[in-house]
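Hi U.,

Before I forget, here's the chain from the pilot set. I'm dumping it here mostly so it's searchable later in email.
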Amino acid sequence: MRIVETWDLPESSLPSRVEPLSARNRAACILLAVGAVLVAGTIVRLWGLAEKSLWFDETYSVFVARQPLVEIPRLLRNYDTHPPLYYVLLHSWITLFGSGEAAVRIPSVLASLGTVLLTFFLGRRLAGNRVGILAAGLLAVSPFQVMSAQEARMYPFLTLFTAGASYALWLALEEAAWRRWAAYAIFMALALYTHYFAALLVLAQAAYVAGFELSRENRRQWVLWVGGAAVLYLPNIPLLVPQILTARGWPDIRPPFSLAALTDLLGMLSFGGGLFGMGSYFKRGALSLEYRLPLLLPFLLLAAAGVAGLGDRRRKAYVLLYLLIPVAAVSLVSLRWNIFYERYFSFVLPPYAILLASGIVYVAQGLRSPRRVAVAAGLVAVVGAYQAAGLTALARSPSAYDWRSLARYVASRADARDFILYIPAFARIPFEYYYRGPQARASLNPREVFVSGGDVKFQAKVDAVRMAGVARDHPRMWIVATVPIGYEARKQIARVLAPYFREVDGRSFGLVYAFLWESKAWQSGRSR
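Structure:
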C-alpha cells in the first residue's frame, strides 16, 4: 500500500467550490512547515558553534585553504587524499570572512541546511508532502548531521551535492528533460570534486538504473550524462592518481572494522550515537553487541515500515540503494583495507531520514482517525526523544581534541627561551592555529611498528647530537603530542630524552597532551 495524501491529489479531483482555498491553504501549510524546519535546523547548528576547539582535521582544512590557490593542488597531491573543491571554497570564504572558529564552520552549516531542503524535495517526490516535511525535520535535528554541520570539513558539501544529484536524477528519470539531466551531471561532478566517496553513489545509481529502470531511453540518457560528469571530472585525474598511490601512508590508526562499526553507524544515523555506550563521532562504542539490537530495533522496524510505505519497487530500490550500496561497498573493501570510519557516512542520512519518515506516515496511515494522529505524534515523539538526547549528549560532551585549551595552557606558562617539540609532526598545524609564541620549534615523527596480535606500537628515533644541543640552549622543552602517541610511545620517548631532560609536568586536553621537561645540561651550564 503506497501512502496517499489529500495534499498529493491533483487539484482537478477536488470539488470546484473549495479548490482555490484548498490549494492556497495547502501551499501555505507546506511553506510554513518547511520554514519552521529550516529555522529549527539553523538554531541547532548555530548553537555553540564556536564553543568547542577546532580539531586537527579542521585546522588542516584552514591550513590548506590559507595557501595560494595555485598551491592547493600541489599540497593535496603530496600530503592529502581528498579532492580540491572544498578547500577552494573555504579559501574564498576565508578571504571574505576570516579564519575564526565560527567563521570557518559557517559554510558547513549552510551546506547542511541546503541538504535539509533537498531532502524535503526528494522525500516529497518519492512519497508525498508529509514524508518530505517529516524527513526534512528529522534531518534538521539529527545529531549526526548537526555534528557534521559544525565541523570545518567537506562532508556537509558531499551530503549536499549527493542529495542534489539524487533529486535531479529522480526528476530526470520521471520527467525527462535535458535541464534535469544537466543538473544531475553538475551535482555529480561537484560531489566527485568534494570527496571520492561520491563514486559510491554512482555505483548505487548504476545498480538502480540497471536493475529497476524499465525505460531503455532513460538508461541510455543516464550513461550519457554520467559520462558528462566524468568529463567534467577529468581535470582532477592528475591529482587523483598520486593520492591513490599514497593513500595507505602512515599513520593507519583506524579502529579495526567489525560488526560493532556497522551497529555504531546505525546508531549515529538513528540518533547521533553516543548514548548507552554506543559509538560517537570520534569514538567506537563499548556496548556489547547483544545489547545493541534492542536499542536499534525500533529504528530498524520503522525503516522497514518506511520501505513498505514507499509503494512501488522503483521507489523502494531508489532509496535503499542510495542508503545501502555506499555502506556495503566500504564494508567489503574494509575486510581487506580498512577505510571505514562511521563519520564518513553522514552523506547517507537523507535516504535514511526518508525511510524513517515514510515508516511513521505508513504506520499511522493504516489506522482510523483520531488514533492515526495520536500514533503519528507518538512515533515522532519517540524518535524526537532519541534525537533530543543525542543533541544533549553532543552539547555536553567536551572537545575530543581541545587544542584551544592546550595552547592557552602553554601560553600561560611558557618562557621565550623554551623549546617546543611536536610529536607527531602534524600536531604543529592545530597547535599553531591557536598559538603564536616566539619559541624555537621542531618535530618528531615516530616510526610505526606492527607487532603480533595486531597491536600497534611506536618507536622514536632521535638525533642525539641535536637533542643535546637543544638541552644546552634551552632551559625547558614542551612536548606537544596527540594520538596515536600513547603510553608505550611516551615511555620510549622518555628513555631517549632521559640523558638530557627530566619531566616535571604534564596535562591532557582530551586526546592532546602537553608535557614539560627541564633541561639537565642548561641548568649545569648556568651553575658554572
